[in-house]
Amino acid sequence: MESSFPSTQNLGFCESAEGKNEAKSYKEMISTFPRVQRWSCYEGFWYFPMFLEGLMSAQDHFIPQSTDIFITSCPKTGTTWLKALTFAICTRSRLSGSSASSLLTKVPHDCVPLLEYDFAQNPMKRDRAVPLVSTHVPYSSLPKSVVSSCCKLIYICRDAKDAFVSLWHFIADLQRSKNIEPLSLEEAFELFCSGISSYGPYWDHVLGYWRASLEFPEKILFLTYEEMKKDTASHVKKLAEFMGCSFTLEEEEEGEVQKIISLCSFEKLSNLEVNKNGKHRADTSFAMKNSVFFRKGEIGDWANNLTAEMGARLDYIMEQKLKGSGLKLPR
Ligand code: PAP
């Protein structure tokens, strides 16, 4: 079965009159939702309107391919890395020999489409041989077609402080490049602590996938950026096994796991020409430099941006919110 919206003609963003009307009606609906700064609230989470339109369209139309695997995350928690690793793992037969990997010529976000943006824009623009779709949509708002399917989901999360700092830099850089005055770090922090950030509340996003992973462990793999950094090799093997393409003994002996780790490392990807000077979604009004996805790639950079008091406050909030869930995020 092909993963798609039933037809491009029914899309909220396509050229047809029907599509335009639908886009307009999503916009109209969104204009009635609670709004703070540029975020609108829908089903308990906060979104920039263009992603929310895509999400609403996906909820109405998206049908996954039965083999699809969803790369899920709250923004800035390790998505780029996870996309690169899963893409490299499931296309590894194409990576060997002299055939150049797509990861050398494309930013990982151009290898794995985003459900609520790329798919909504053009569901046909997809390499059907790659069974990967990404989304930042919280578990409770995923299209019913995804939740009720047999598709697997891989979720990555990260210490809230590092996720917040990474998000603030990302949005502030994008806004500055469009001559928009960004929120100060302090303003954005206050909002984040009250649950208002892209796809936030952060803790509800994490908890939604955490609880679902406990309920459906064979379907949802829950990972953290910090654990993955600590022992990347065992995570690469775990990912391959979960995706149904385990490494053979022969591959392991030939160093395939290490090759993938090196190819997807921050050092390697961030120094590629395409990621230094290329553009993501270059032909759209939402174009951005690929370099924005590669800032530092470190654990604990929050301490260079937030005061100790701010850090302790966010830790306390996370502790309270996650209490009783059995989940302890690394800090
Ligand atoms: P997204 O939500 O826009 O896709 P995402 O990839 O989830 O962003 O997060 C970006 C973070 O991952 C950045 O962290 P930083 O701001 O703290 O530096 C980015 O540097 C980091 N990152 C990107 N690629 C890699 C990689 N290959 N290995 C480790 N970290 C990475």
Summarize, please.
The chain is α/β, with parallel strands linked by helices and 331 residues long.
Describe the structure.
The longest helix is centred in the middle third of the chain and has 18 residues, at 160-177. By secondary structure, the chain is α/β, with parallel strands linked by helices. α1 crosses α2 (49-61), α3 (79-90) runs antiparallel to α14 and α12 (232-242) packs across α14. The chain has a single domain (65-322), classed as 3-Layer(aba) Sandwich (Rossmann fold). Residues 5-15 have low confidence and may be disordered. The protein has a 4-stranded parallel sheet, with helices on both faces. β1 and β2 form a beta hairpin. It contains 17 helices and 9 strands. The protein is globular, with a radius of gyration of 19 Å. The structure holds 3'-phosphate-adenosine-5'-diphosphate (PAP). Residues 73, 75-81, 84, 162, 166, 169, 264-266, 269, 293-297, 301 line the site of 3'-phosphate-adenosine-5'-diphosphate. One of its GO terms (molecular function) is sulfotransferase activity. Belongs to the sulfotransferase 1 family. Residues 67-326 form the Sulfotransferase domain. InterPro entries: P-loop_NTPase, Sulfotransferase_dom. It holds the Pfam family Sulfotransfer_1.
